[in-house]
Write a structure and sequence with these properties.
It comes from Paenibacillus anaericanus. Keywords: Disulfide bond, FAD, Flavoprotein, NADP, Oxidoreductase, Redox-active center. One of its GO terms (molecular function) is thioredoxin-disulfide reductase (NADPH) activity. By secondary structure, the chain is α/β, with parallel strands linked by helices. About 20% of the residues lie in helices and about 30% in strands. The strands form five sheets. Strands 1, 2, 5, 6, 7, 8 and 19 form a seven-stranded mixed sheet that branches. Strands 10-17-11-12-13 form a five-stranded parallel sheet, with helices on one face. It folds into two domains: about 180 residues, FAD/NAD(P)-binding domain, CATH 3.50.50.60; about 120 residues, FAD/NAD(P)-binding domain (3-Layer(bba) Sandwich). Helix 1 runs parallel beside helix 2 and helix 4 packs parallel to helix 5. The longest helix is centred in the last third of the chain and has 20 residues.
């Protein structure tokens, strides 16, 4: 039986593993279908502290993994199919039938950005297609950009990108936006933001060299195909937290994110902690994920020492 199992290996899970391993708790880390998380699909990361010249996303994750291994963290490949948090020791079933037991569990399974599932999209992720304005907006200084989406996230992304882009066109399949009134007004009052409403995205268009040149759309009124020209396409249609495998044992909100006690990583089950994007509905940055991973490890250590008071009445 393990002292702690960490499920997920993005910045949050790997940071938690580093802290647990340095505390001589010898955690086992379960890697899912995407070891290293979303950063392994990015190119250069320029906003993670400590790298003045930037660092490639996969390299950053590999360094964090090696750091955890150096202090004694054990890694196990596989997908967690089922968990049992009804009593201690907790049970974690990994694909293939193996069942692991632990006194504590840290959930850091992340959240996947939703994509349009249209031709040219996946082929150009990190090469003109992005799901994170904060991460990639800087690379499009002076360029024409598209933001796909009609909710608050899309309005926020569009407004943020005007700091760098010469223009930002919001593409949405409906004529009306889903965003809150204040977010709509903020975007509509920005002279750099333009609108292509009532358009259904069909394909990310590229030139003969493979560079993104815009988004092919269908005008839902005329039924004609159009090309909305741009140098980059930002998809902002939401995220899906990886929580389905938890069933109903952990409290989650209406969007599927794990609910934690404010200011902590504690879930509704004593001894089970959550960190990173799986519980972060707002920031979703590598550095905030890493910080919450540190919190989860320290909360976990206090729990194992018996010095943690679990009081959800304060939530």
């Amino acid at each position: 039986m393990y002292k702690s199992i960490v499920i997920g290996t993005g910045p949050a899970g790997l940071t938690a593993a580093i802290y647990l391993a340095r505390a001589d708790l010898n955690p086992i880390v379960i890697e899912g279908i995407q070891p290293g998380g979303q950063l392994t699909t990015t190119t250069e990361v320029e906003n993670f502290p400590g790298f003045p010249q930037g660092i490639m996303g996969p390299e950053l994750m590999d360094n964090m993994r090696k750091q955890a291994e150096r202090f004694g963290a054990e890694f196990r490949s596989g997908w967690v199919e089922e968990v049992d948090f009804t009593k201690q020791p907790f049970k974690v079933k990994v694909e293939g039938g193996d069942e692991l037991e632990a006194e504590t569990v840290i959930l850091s399974t992340g959240a996947l950005a939703k994509y349009l599932d249209i031709p040219g999209e996946q082929d150009n992720i990190g090469r003109g297609v992005s799901t994170c304005a904060t991460c990639d907006g800087f690379f499009f200084r002076g360029k024409k950009l598209i933001v796909v989406g009609g909710g608050d996230s899309a309005m926020e992304e569009a407004s943020f990108l005007t700091r760098f882009a010469s223009s930002v066109t919001v593409v949405h399949r409906r004529e009306e936006l889903r965003a809150s009134k204040i977010m709509q007004e903020r975007a509509k009052n920005n002279e750099k933001v333009h609108w292509a409403l009532g358009r259904t995205p069909l394909e990310v268009a590229t030139d003969e060299k493979g560079a993104v040149i815009g988004l092919k759309v269908r005008n839902n009124v005329s039924n004609q195909e159009e090309l909305v020209e741009a140098d980059g396409v930002f998809v902002a249609i939401g995220h899906t937290p990886n929580t389905k495998f938890l069933g109903t044992q952990i409290e989650i909100d209406k969007h599927g994110y794990i609910v934690v006690m404010p200011g902590t990583s504690e879930t509704n089950i004593p001894g089970v902690f959550a960190c990173g994007d799986v519980q972060d509905t707002r920031y979703r940055q590598a550095i905030t994920a890493a910080g919450s991973g540190c919190m989860a490890a320290m909360d976990c250590e206090k729990f194992l020492e018996g010095s943690m008071v679990h009081d959800w009445s304060k939530n």
